[in-house]
Amino acid sequence: MTQTNCWSLHDLRSQHLLGYCINVIIGQKAFPYETLFTTGWYTSSKASDPLLRLSEAIANELKGSGVSVTCLCPGATATKFAGRANMEESRLFKMGAMKSKDVARAGYKGMMAGKGMVIPGLLNKTIAMSVRFSPRKLVTAISRSLQEKAK
Q: Which of 73, 86, 77 is nearest to 115 (CA)?
């Protein structure tokens, strides 16, 4: 991802072209999913902190060039992967996972508006904000609880 971003964005900038880049990421910066227990192998591979920081740095470097970088942090999204990962019955998904088309629409609108980060949906925004002000142990406990099957 780093090479693709850097090469593509460098080409756009060097040729004075307008362009957009959207990185779809999940993880600790926006959501507590980096500590997911039932899908830890997957979510830790998608940990956003380095990806988000890279995107923010590139966006800052490209400011005023006509090229923008947006990070889409979708949170729980109803996809086939959720079914394969056995997450559809989790508390998190029962609380209301967003439809993938709604997530894509929000990401596109944010990208076209030049936003640096897009977190679609009120529930996702609330979760993301609460992580910033909560102790790490509490975030980990809540994250695990959200992944367990709803009773």
A: 73
